[in-house]
Amino acid sequence: MNTPRVSIVTPSFNQARFIEATIRSVLEQDHPNIEYIIMDGGSLDGSVDIIKKYEQKLSHWVSEPDDGQTDALNKGFEKANGDIFAWINSDDTYEPGVFKEVVDFFEKNPEVGLVYGDANFIDVSGNKIGTFPSAQTNYAKLRTGYVHIPQQSAFFRAELWRKVGPLDPDFFFAMDYDLWVRLAKVTKIVHLPGKVWANFRLHTNAKTIAADDRCWPEMLKVHYRDGGSFFAMIVAKYYLRKLLSPLIAWNRSRKLSKS
Q: What domains are there in the chain, each with its CATH number?
């Protein structure tokens, strides 16, 4: 096909409750050239049976032990042959019509290497419970901890992945932040406000809830690796967030209990 190929990777482990919604949100896109790869980490909860229902429409899938989400993503992108890359976790979903909008944007803006839209927070039932605070950022702002890129709605050029990738296998949580920093250093990144492209599901077993305390220390690792100072804004944000973490955890629990 002449139209650019969109390659999507889904890492998964024991997400039978949500993975079918994720799969359908990819396969039901109206873009004609999609490469979809699912890397399951050896689930035993029925996920494999769900994946098999759609295997004729998948470019590749496997269910075998891995070293976690970052490892699964790297293995998935090794098999990807598209022009545009992205990943969607097995508890999140895309909105309809997203891929065509992404392809159209990249074709009209060849200087942009990473584009991202907005994302909703949703609960276990798929109900909207909030909005991700996405905003325009850049390399300098990212280095201060001003991220505001919802991973679920971010798409980047495959040629740049091959230049700055793969994901750092030492990262459990901030591998996306690390990638955004590396991409922003070599290309223009653009936020499209008002374009809701994805849904970020919050639930008690999600990494964002269960292991949030691991994110900012990993972000600091990126900061210091790239020559950052102890007196930088991102370090101050880390200690402030650490101080406020009980309040942040309580607020998230409150939102989830209402859903």
A: 6-201 (3.90.550.10)
Which spans in the chain are helix H? Answer: 19-27, 47-53, 69-78, 98-108, 139-143, 158-164, 175-186, 207-210, 215-225, 233-258
Distance between CA atoms of residues 188 and 192, nearest Å: 13
Q: pTM, whole model, 2 decimals?
A: 0.91
CA angle 179, 183, 185 (to 5 degrees): 120
Q: Decide: residue 133, CB within 10 A, 0-12 exposed, 13-18 middle, 19+ buried.
A: exposed
pLDDT tens for the chain, 259 residues: list them: 689 999 999 999 999 999 999 999 999 999 999 999 999 999 999 999 999 999 999 999 999 999 999 999 999 999 999 999 999 999 999 999 999 999 999 999 999 999 999 999 999 999 999 999 999 999 999 999 999 999 999 999 999 999 999 999 999 999 999 999 999 999 999 999 999 999 999 976 655 544 557 788 999 999 998 888 988 888 998 888 888 766 666 566 666 666 5
Calpha distance 148→137 (Å, rounded): 7
